[in-house]
Amino acid sequence: ADQTETLTGNQGKIDQIQDSILSFAIWNIGYAGLGEESDFFYEKGSLLSGGSMVRPPEVISEKNWQGIQQQAKAIKTDYWLFQEVDYGSKRSYFVNQFAGLEALFPDQFSSYAVNYKVGRVPVPILEPWKVYGKVNSGLATFSRFQPKSHQRLQLPGNYSWPTRIFMLDRCAAMYRFPHANGNEL
After folding, report:
1. In the beta sheet, which residues pair with residue 142?
2. What pLDDT, in 10s, does the model give residues 3-16?
3. pTM for the whole structure
4. Best exposed site among 9, 86, 134, 147 by fewest CB in 10 Å?
5. Is pLDDT at 135 greater than 50 in this prediction?
6. Burial (Cβ within 10 Å: 0-12, 13-18, ≥19) of residue 40
7. How many CA atoms lie within 13 A of 180 on its CB side?
């Protein structure tokens, strides 16, 4: 199977890098579900929730999401590299977080690389009324610059069956940005 996929997204305003100093911000937003109130059950096993939350209450998820957006908008950087950005997942109440981030950076290049897309994550296994459910999550990248190429690279996974049918797919998003000096980043 092909291990690369070309990504699509919004176009950037700047065709090539002119600067010698660039800034990067990297943030695993944890699907707006892993804030200070979190006690994530999966850290203790997959059979029972053990009284821990499977996903945060919707009001906490919304509070976290609002805080993420405020912080992201306040930080000025050339590149944003976000992880665990949900796009229609039960755990984040089906909020399209990628679209929300795109709205913050309308004039920037954007792309989304899926690395966790499962129709139903059946954990905690012995509490089917609490299951984690549908997940569509990935890596979101934003830049003032337009890359000349951008691809999702599938990385190997080492999960045995049946675990591999509901685990995330490790991936990397690779971008090539042209520089005015003829090189690329």
Report:
1. 80, 110
2. 545 556 677 778 88
3. 0.87
4. 134
5. yes
6. middle
7. 6
